[in-house]
């Protein structure tokens, strides 16, 4: 009996040897850290005998020290450490060394040399790779901004590798470095300021794809889609590097391996007493548009295969558990049989029990055989998967090497083409000059009268063709200067109207010959600005030549010059009545050497518009086009009125005075002019698309109309546009109409806007609730469109009368009421703020708007809606009313009074005072003194 029990005990399954691997990570948050842990778990899926112990220090070095101590106490056979602070963990590594536990350092090193192995990327090499790739993108020249991570050895090494590698490209320079954050997007305010300060920036290098996302957002907001962006990490998954490159939000991302799989493989070699490398430096590859799709597909395939492996392993564990359970049952039956024999049961009962036991054993053996066969099949499937993964890895490495070779070849070929292009353009100028000189002499010299008509015609043809060829060469050279950053702006104070008028007059003879009307329409007699005539000459000459080329006889070209509604910028528009631009050509007309459909008589080189675009950007402006096929085109050049000091010519005159108290500084804009009914803006907020479209269609013939599909979007549009009236539904998802009106009434920017409720809620108490919320009119559905239209007109007319009333009150500036309405409270606050800065001659509308919590345009629209006047007239009215008080006091001279109310010029103060009150300040004081006496 004892022998049988001993045999049964001996048949119990002996567990396989178990190893314990401890992993102490500095922080588990972030996609890159998650990819590191996922790589470890993926590799450990093939080793169920390993017990994996993970600890997260949450960026706390003291906590990580304690966790390493706990892992050693828990019996870890190998310790993998991703340090938070290398200096702080040296003592912990030394303790593991004293206990005989090998330590593998992952991603960062410590100050201790007693570690078994190091696994991590080459940060210095990653920075150098980014620099070389940037040089390849920018053709070895241009401005670069670097966004580093928070100070660490990783950020320091990537920065060193990047800057040292850039030294090989003397025409590339880092215009600025910003310290970002590994776990957040880049410092957007700092990057915005740097991009505005250095418009020549062509590339941003971010130390992580997360910071590259922030850089992309900044470039989008500034309209700098031309700036290339390079990040580091290159991870797969939503919002990571592969997706950013595939969607065009990043030009490239450097794959920086998290190293999880490699760390586990080194640990297994140590545990199995196999040879291993002490230094395991992981490689870096460039991911761009040439290989991103392949890598995404491979990542998806690997993820799918990993899921299959995990599913199969789960099934294997289930089968093993079943097998163990059945084996336990078998052992129990054997023990039961031994006990039955020991008790000396009857032979018949023993026989019967034996038969039953034998039958059960047969069933169990059959089940065991099936389990063993399933295990064999699973092992064979796992072996096939491993072979497939190995083959795919080899294919990926081969493709990566091939792509790198092709990229290097393309870079070399591109550089050779550019050198040939530039040298050839320069070489053409000498023979062209030698052709033009003799031809010009023959046409205009002493013997020109001896030329036959046919000879004169042929020489004229040669001269025109040579001039055209020289113009093309000059454009090529200008293109090359812009590309290498050699063309600089040298701006001087100038009058944009006079400058454009000179160019238009130069084209008038050619227009008359072609029977084209050329009209010049300046909106102001003069518009002072900082201009570089050499740069803008080429821009407007190209635009005028282009317009003249495509405008048929009997057509018209109109050139207009005006100040924009936004401060500090001017616009020049060249409008023609030519053939227009095809929709498929519009996105490409500013590309170099692009030639769309052209008439046989007007074929161009494809350089003029691209050169004009580059020169306008160089002047910190913008060139846009609006065209309709068969009706003509309008090219708009928008220029800043002022330019940074570094773009001023060294011998330029003193800067122009653009202060708020000068007449030219605050021109009348569209925002200053009260709208007529057709210009009134009505905002329709309705979540039902059909009703929204119907209401907008009924109002659009009479007013300007904007629409929003829900309360949240409508509230945002109302704050941005400051409409003249709002038509709003009550029952809407998210933000209801009642909440929208409550927020509108509580905000100074929109407290004055009339609101019409248009709703199916027709109960009397609901109508009362709507009016109490702040609605001016409550219309129930179905409604009469004519009644809605007349309600809108009546509310706008009432608003105009109220505006006139407030405007008359403004002339006397009465004492505020004890309980003012929102409009009066706004006027009181605005008046108080102007009076607080009354002595400032440099007070700007932007500053005033910022203090009151408005944007510049919102303040213009608010003052216009409440008072029917412009903000500049309001400021001047407050200044002049204060001047009247000071002149009556007789304590200050007229000049001193002018300075006290913010006028830098005595003559400008006198003219403004006389225009308002019909008499000069001195005459006003004299009459007041005579009246008092």
TrEMBL record:
Transmembrane segments: none annotated. The modification 4-aspartylphosphate is found at residue 729. Residues 423-643 form the Histidine kinase domain. Residues 828-927 form the HTH araC/xylS-type domain. The keyword Transmembrane does not apply. Keywords: Coiled coil, DNA-binding, Phosphoprotein, Transcription, Transcription regulation. PROSITE patterns: HIS_KIN, HTH_ARAC_FAMILY_1, HTH_ARAC_FAMILY_2, RESPONSE_REGULATORY. Its EC number is 2.7.13.3. Pfam families: HATPase_c, HisKA, HTH_18, Peripla_BP_4, Response_reg. PANTHER family: HYBRID SIGNAL TRANSDUCTION HISTIDINE KINASE C, TWO-COMPONENT HISTIDINE KINASE. This is histidine kinase.
């Amino acid at each position: 009996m004892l022998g049988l029990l001993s045999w049964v005990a001996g048949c119990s399954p002996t567990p396989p040897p178990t190893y314990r691997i401890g992993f102490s990570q500095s922080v588990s948050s972030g996609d890159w850290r998650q990819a590191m842990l996922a790589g470890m778990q993926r590799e450990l899926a093939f080793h169920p005998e390993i017990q994996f112990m993970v600890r997260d220090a949450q960026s706390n070095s003291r906590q990580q020290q304690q966790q390493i101590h706990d892992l050693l106490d828990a019996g870890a056979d190998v310790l993998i450490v991703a340090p938070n602070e290398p200096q702080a963990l040296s003592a912990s590594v030394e303790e593991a060394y004293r206990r005989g536990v090998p330590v593998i350092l992952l991603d960062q090193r410590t100050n201790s040399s007693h570690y078994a192995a190091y696994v991590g990327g080459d940060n210095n090499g990653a920075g150098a790779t980014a620099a070389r790739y940037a040089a390849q993108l920018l053709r070895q020249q241009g401005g670069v901004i670097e966004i580093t991570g928070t100070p660490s050895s990783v950020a320091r090494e990537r920065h060193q590798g990047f800057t040292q590698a850039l030294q090989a490209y003397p025409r590339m320079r880092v215009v600025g470095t910003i310290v970002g954050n590994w776990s957040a997007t880049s410092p957007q305010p700092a990057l915005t300021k740097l991009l505005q300060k250095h418009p020549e920036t062509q590339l941003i290098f971010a130390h992580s794809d997360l910071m590259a996302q922030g850089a992309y957002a900044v470039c989008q907001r500034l309209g700098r889609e031309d700036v290339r962006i390079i990040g580091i990490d290159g991870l797969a998954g939503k919002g990571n590097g592969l997706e950013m490159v595939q969607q065009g939000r990043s030009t490239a991302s450097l794959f920086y391996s998290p190293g999880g799989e490699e760390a586990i493989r080194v640990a297994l070699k140590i545990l199995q007493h196999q040879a291993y490398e002490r230094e395991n430096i992981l490689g870096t590859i460039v991911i761009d548009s040439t290989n991103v799709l392949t890598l995404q597909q491979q990542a998806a395939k690997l993820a799918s295969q990993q899921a299959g492996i995990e599913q199969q392993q789960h099934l294997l564990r289930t089968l093993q558990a079943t097998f163990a359970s059945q084996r336990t049952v078998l052992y129990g039956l054997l023990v039961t049989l031994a006990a039955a024999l020991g008790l000396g049961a009857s032979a018949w009962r023993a026989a019967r029990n034996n038969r039953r036991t034998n039958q059960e054993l047969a069933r169990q053996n059959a089940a065991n055989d099936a389990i063993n066969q399933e295990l064999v099949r699973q092992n064979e499937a796992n072996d096939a998967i491993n072979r497939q993964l190995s083959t795919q890895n080899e294919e990926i490495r081969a493709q990566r090497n091939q792509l790198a070779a092709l990229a290097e070849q393309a870079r070399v070929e591109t550089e050779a083409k550019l050198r040939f292009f530039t040298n050839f353009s320069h070489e053409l100028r000498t023979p062209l000059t030698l052709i033009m000189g003799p031809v010009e002499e023959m046409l205009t010299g002493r013997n020109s009268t001896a030329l036959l008509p046919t000879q004169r015609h042929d020489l004229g043809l040669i001269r025109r063709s040579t001039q055209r060829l020289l113009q093309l060469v000059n454009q090529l050279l200008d293109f090359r200067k812009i590309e290498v950053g050699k063309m600089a702006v040298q701006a001087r104070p100038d009058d944009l109207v006079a400058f454009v008028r000179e160019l238009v007059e130069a084209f008038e003879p050619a227009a008359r010959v072609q029977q084209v009307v050329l009209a010049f329409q300046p909106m102001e007699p003069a518009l002072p600005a900082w201009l570089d005539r050499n740069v803008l000459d080429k821009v407007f000459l190209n635009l005028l030549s282009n317009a003249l080329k495509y405008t048929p006889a009997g057509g018209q070209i109109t050139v207009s010059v005006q100040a924009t509604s936004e401060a500090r910028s001017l616009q020049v528009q060249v409008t023609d009545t030519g053939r227009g631009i095809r929709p498929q050509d519009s996105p490409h007309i500013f590309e170099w050497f692009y030639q769309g459909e052209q008439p046989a008589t007007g074929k161009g080189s494809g350089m003029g518009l691209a050169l004009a675009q580059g020169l306008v950007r160089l002047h910190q402006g913008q060139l846009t086009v609006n065209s309709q096929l068969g009706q003509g085109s309008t090219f708009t050049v928008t220029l800043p009125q002022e330019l940074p000091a570094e773009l001023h010519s060294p011998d330029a005159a003193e800067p122009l005075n653009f202060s708020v108290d000068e007449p030219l500084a605050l021109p009348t804009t569209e925002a200053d002019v009260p709208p007529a009914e057709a210009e009134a803006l009505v905002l329709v907020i309705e979540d039902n698309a059909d009703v929204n479209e119907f209401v907008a269609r009924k109002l659009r013939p009479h007013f300007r109309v904007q629409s929003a599909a829900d309360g949240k979007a409508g509230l945002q549009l109302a704050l941005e546009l400051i409409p003249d009236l709002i038509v709003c539904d009550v029952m809407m998802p998210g933000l209801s109409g009642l909440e929208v009106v409550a927020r509108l009434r509580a905000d100074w920017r929109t407290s004055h806007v009339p609101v019409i409720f248009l709703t199916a809620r027709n109960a009397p108490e609901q109508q009362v609730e709507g009016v109490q919320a702040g609605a001016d009119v409550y219309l129930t559905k179905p409604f009469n469109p004519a009644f809605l239209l007349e309600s809108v007109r009546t509310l706008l007319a009432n608003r105009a009368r109220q505006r006139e009333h407030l405007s008359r009150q403004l002339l006397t500036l009465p004492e505020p009421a004890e309980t003012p309405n929102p409009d009066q409270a706004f006027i009181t606050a605005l008046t108080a703020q102007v009076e607080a800065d009354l002595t400032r001659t440099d007070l700007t509308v932007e500053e005033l708007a910022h203090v009151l919590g408005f944007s510049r345009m919102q303040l213009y629209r608010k003052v216009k809606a409440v008072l029917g006047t412009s903000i500049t007239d309001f400021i001047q009215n407050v200044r002049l009313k204060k001047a009247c008080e000071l002149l009556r006091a007789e304590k200050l001279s007229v000049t001193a009074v002018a300075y006290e109310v913010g006028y830098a010029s005595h003559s400008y103060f006198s003219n403004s005072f006389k225009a308002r009150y019909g008499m000069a300040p001195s005459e006003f004081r004299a009459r007041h003194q005579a009246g008092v006496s």
